[in-house]
Amino acid sequence: MDKSLLGWLLLLGLGFPLLSILLSEAASRLQRQQHPLAVALRQVREYVLPPLAVLLAMRQLLSVAGASWARLVETLTWVAVIVAGISLINALLTTKKPQIKWQVRVPNLFFQVARASVVLAIVYYLISGVWNISLSGLGTGLGVASAVIALALQDTLSNLVSGLLLLFANPFKTGDWIELDGNQGRVIEQNWWSVTIENPFFKINIPNGELSKASIINYGQGPIWKSISVSFSYNDSPGAVIPALNSLVTGIDAIKSEGSAEVSSYGDSSITYELWYRILPEDDEDVSDELKYRLYYLTQRYGFTMPYPMKAQYGLNTTQGILSKMPQVAENRQQDLATYLRSLPCFVTLNENEIKNLAEQSRFQSYGKGELIIQEGKEDQGLYIMLKGRGEAYVKDEQGHHQIVDQLGINAVFGEMATFPGEVSPVTVIANEDVEIVLIPAKEIVEAIESNEKFASEILEYIEERKKIVKLATGIKHEASPRSSNNGRRGKVRS
């Protein structure tokens, strides 16, 4: 027996079955791992191997190559190769984030071109090589037809060519935030005809022909620098305004940097400042509105003056109503504050001079909904008392989740770590609505504690109970139930 014939018998009788088993096992393992290559291997086994074995048997064993039915089998084999080849390209190339290390991320247009190239190359071979059909006449006809089609579809062809040139120039890729001709958006798709960009307001398809002529600004895929501007009076020094503006971004998760305020210009009646921050472009509209909202309360807290200030009246609103009709003169407000402090249980042990001193040194501050009043891990400025509105205190547990440790209503006292200079707050306090608070500076509270043992005992008792609640919250996995500010011993401080 001819050795070559024996070799083909062994290949077809043993080699193909073994190869089929290996492909089946490999595809099964990859399928369990949800590997994209599993589909391609399964199609090679099921679609390519059977007709290929028949084709080789006809050619090498039966010496049948030119018959029509032999050409039909070869055609079926190449059709199977097309199906499996496209699956292989789908596994090797991706237009999204690669699932596995060896996958190659390519633009959508390259992906489509690669698939089309496989199909066209095999179809050309089948027509000219298998069925021996001359394509010379067809080529001439196609040339004339192509010229006519090119004139009719010059815009479409321009988009196609421009798309290919853009891919080679690579001024941006899918996922980048770009700006062109006044439009901004994130690139979500790029194909042979257009590029699709999307922002929070609209989705737009820009033809590649127009895109190739436009000036493109590519901001990349990460956060970008944005800013808001504000003007304050010359009576407010930049040394006071800039740190206050920098604190404006605290507590906004969408902002990816600390605030960076600077003097923008000096006008005739005011100084203009720019507050810079880094943020994903999609979030900027909402965050910009939030910063402008917070700016009002920051102005009230620090007493800054706008170039054209608006007159407003603010009153204290307490459960006892002691300060509800307080005159809008600063001196009278401090006097009524002394009366209010004497009404709180935690201050009853202080004498008149001590109460008066605390009231004189205290400051009124306003916060808008969502603003941080104190922050976990940072020093408290002093002892806070809630005059109006509601807030909540929370900590972060080991998993980084927020665990509420207290609901703060009117008369609630917090910021107790100010009594220990150098210590940081164990909780974050956030305003649940528009609030007004009294801030008693840390220095004054420390002096009151040092001069009055009973007052010191009240404050220390409250601190110990707060520590217990914080330890409990940080040690559990699920959100703690909100605790009323009037529960247990803490009622002696808050009610």
TrEMBL record:
Keywords: Cell membrane, Membrane, Transmembrane, Transmembrane helix
Membrane topology: Multi-pass membrane protein
Record-annotated membrane-spanning stretches: 6-26, 47-70, 76-94, 106-127
GO molecular function, one term: mechanosensitive monoatomic ion channel activity
Cited Pfam families: cNMP_binding (PF00027), MS_channel_2nd (PF00924)
Domain Cyclic nucleotide-binding: 346-466
GO cellular component, one term: plasma membrane
InterPro entries assigned to the protein according to its UniProt record, in alphabetical order: cNMP-bd_dom, cNMP-bd_dom_sf, LSM_dom_sf, MscS_archaea/bacteria_type, MscS_beta-dom_sf, MscS_channel_2nd, MscS_channel_C_sf, RmlC-like_jellyroll
Cell compartments where the protein resides: Cell membrane
PANTHER family attached to this UniProt entry: SMALL-CONDUCTANCE MECHANOSENSITIVE CHANNEL (PTHR30221:SF1)
UniProt protein name: Small-conductance mechanosensitive channel
Organism: Allocoleopsis franciscana PCC 7113
